[in-house]
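Example record

The entry below shows one chain as it appears in the dataset: sequence first, then structure tokens.
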Amino acid sequence: MDKYLQATIDEARKGMAAGGIPIGSVLVIDGEIVGRGHNQRVQKGSAVLHAEMDCLENAGRISAADYRRATLYSTLSPCDMCSGAILLYGIPRVVIGENRTFCGPEAYVQSRGVEVVVVDDPQCRQLMEAFIANNPALWNEDIGV
């Protein structure tokens, strides 16, 4: 398995162990992980700390030139908010662990020039399927249902 995707799974498990939603993300520039994060809406009572947003926050201030060389990895297809951040910062490539349990606006992100790679990883899918089955109300809250 890709070491960066494995890092997103590790982040997702970290979030789940802390009572949160098991979604993880890492930001990679020039082969180095420069930011890590996991969904922390539950843990921090946040409206916006999805895994990708937490990852970008933890990466800190990065130049536009650096973002243009970055790849954002996520265990789950980024939602509208997180996809907006990808477009805002000009991140050219997104690697998604799975998009069967939830599919964000991937076609739109692609139409804006972002390379979208869907791995369809069984571990990512199993984490989300089990979480959704056991926590439907929390899942529906997280995706705004």
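Notes for this example: The chain is about 45% helix and 20% strand. The chain has a mean pLDDT of 95.
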